[in-house]
């Protein structure tokens, strides 16, 4: 039986300002959910968002309020071993709130996998890989600093895929910035861009043409998410793959984008999808439609990153890798044992459930009073 549900906000400074077209982050607010069951098993989930309402409709505070006030009361007393049935109750009564639902479902699945003595990946179809390639995002906004940061990551053998956040400046300035970095890092290093919807379709045609010529190998969400027809035109026009990210808020969007051939690659995010099971469906739609897969992040801490890794490890095809570097952007670790990054890969935790454990003392210091 589900006995209690606690939602915790923890403010953690980032290692440097993280510049996106929508906001600049100096702090990440982790939203953590702890579910306790009457058999003594507990599970953890995470609903962290990027820049709060700058990026999406849910803020850390709204997630906490909606879980505490509206979602938790529906779940207390329900059978903790029947996660799908419990989530059906929540999905029937609560519209939207995908991040909140993801955190709750993750915590319930974590508890159930621990109860069964298996890694969470085994409840999601079963893992087919033990390590995931991880991109790093260069988002200092300064070309020289970004090159130095990338070179350091290559030397540490931590990342060899780099994603650049662009879209806040004029197209020509952004293109010059990206191509200077691509030139400095060379042909063997993957350089990609994420425009976070900032361009018009005309700007995208100009920008993507120049980036493609310069050797950039992935273009993420160049235009507004609702402009599916425009995304389809760009995907058809250019050989460089165009990826949908903000456009995908669950399996129905994935289906709609796949049938419209509106993206070559999908960025799968567990929170954006509304939970692990729905994110798995996004992955299935992509694979049925021949769309490439990329494991996305909302810059979560260790819990959300481990949850994402448990799912992405089940994808048969993950040709564009992942960006599960969230914990590396934070100055403080909330896990007892940090996630392991080595040889350009995140090692998928192999213990029961999420395979990670919260350090409750550290979390106690970070949690918002
Ligand atoms: Mg993105």
> Averaging pLDDT over every residue, what do you get?
96
Number of domains: 2
Taken in chain order, the helices and strands follow as EEEHHHEEHEHEHEHEHEHHEHEEH
Which topology of the largest domain does CATH recognise? Answer: TIM Barrel
What global shape is seen? globular
Distance between the termini: 29 Å
The percent range for helix content is 25-40%
Ligand list: magnesium ion
Instruction: Give the number of DSSP strands.
Output: 13
Placed side by side, the strands forming the largest sheet appear as: 5-6-7-8-9-10-11
Low-confidence stretches: none
The name of the CATH architecture of the largest domain is Alpha-Beta Barrel
| CATH H-tier superfamily of the largest domain | Enolase-like C-terminal domain
Most strands sheet: 7 strands, parallel
Radius of gyration: 20 Å
Primary descriptors:
369 residues, alpha/beta, Enolase-like, domain 1, TIM Barrel, seven-stranded parallel beta sheet, binds magnesium ion
List the topology elements.
Elements (H helix, E strand, L loop, with lengths): L1 E18 L4 E14 L4 E5 L13 H16 L7 H11 L4 H19 L14 E3 L2 E3 L4 H13 L5 E5 L5 H15 L4 E5 L6 H13 L5 E2 L7 H10 L4 E3 L6 H9 L5 E4 L1 H4 L2 H14 L2 E4 L6 H11 L28 E2 L2 E3 L12 H7 L3
Parallel strand pairs: 5-6, 6-7, 7-8, 8-9, 9-10, 10-11
Antiparallel strand pairs: 1-2, 2-3, 4-13, 12-13
The protein binds magnesium ion.
Magnesium ion binds next to loops.
């Amino acid at each position: 039986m589900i006995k209690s549900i606690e939602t915790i906000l923890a403010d953690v400074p980032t290692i440097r300002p993280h510049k996106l077209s929508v906001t600049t982050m100096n702090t990440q607010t982790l939203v953590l959910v702890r579910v306790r069951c009457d058999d003594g098993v507990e599970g953890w989930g995470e609903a962290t968002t990027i820049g709060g309402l700058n990026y999406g409709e849910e803020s850390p505070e709204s997630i906490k309020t909606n879980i505490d006030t509206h979602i938790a009361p529906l779940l207390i007393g329900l059978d903790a071993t029947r996660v799908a049935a419990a989530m059906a109750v929540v999905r029937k009564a609560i519209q939207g709130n995908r991040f909140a639902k993801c955190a709750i479902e993750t915590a319930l699945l974590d508890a159930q996998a621990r109860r069964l003595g298996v890694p969470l990946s085994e409840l999601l179809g079963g893992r087919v890989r033990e390590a995931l390639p991880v991109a790093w995002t260069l988002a200092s906004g300064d070309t020289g600093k970004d090159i130095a940061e990338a070179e350091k990551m290559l030397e540490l053998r931590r990342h060899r895929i780099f994603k650049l956040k662009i879209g806040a400046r004029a197209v020509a300035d952004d293109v010059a910035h990206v191509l200077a970095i691509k030139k400095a890092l060379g042909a063997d290093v993957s350089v990609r861009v994420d425009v976070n919807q900032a361009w018009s379709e005309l700007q995208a045609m100009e920008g993507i043409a120049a980036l493609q010529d310069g050797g950039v190998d992935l273009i993420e969400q160049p235009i507004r998410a609702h402009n599916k027809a425009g995304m389809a035109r760009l995907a058809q026009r250019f050989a460089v793959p165009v990826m949908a990210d903000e456009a995908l808020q669950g399996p129905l969007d994935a289906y709609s984008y796949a049938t419209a051939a509106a993206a070559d690659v999908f960025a799968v995010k567990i929170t954006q999808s509304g939970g692990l099971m729905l994110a798995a469906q996004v992955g299935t739609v992509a694979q049925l439609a021949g769309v490439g897969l990329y494991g996305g992040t909302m810059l979560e801490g260790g819990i959300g990153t481990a949850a994402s890794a448990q799912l992405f490890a089940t994808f048969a095809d993950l040709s564009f890798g992942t960006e599960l570097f969230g914990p590396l952007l934070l100055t403080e670790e909330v896990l007892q044992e940090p996630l392991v990054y080595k040889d350009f890969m995140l090692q998928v935790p192999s213990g029961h459930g999420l395979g990670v454990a919260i350090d409750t003392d550290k979390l106690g210091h970070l949690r918002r009073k």
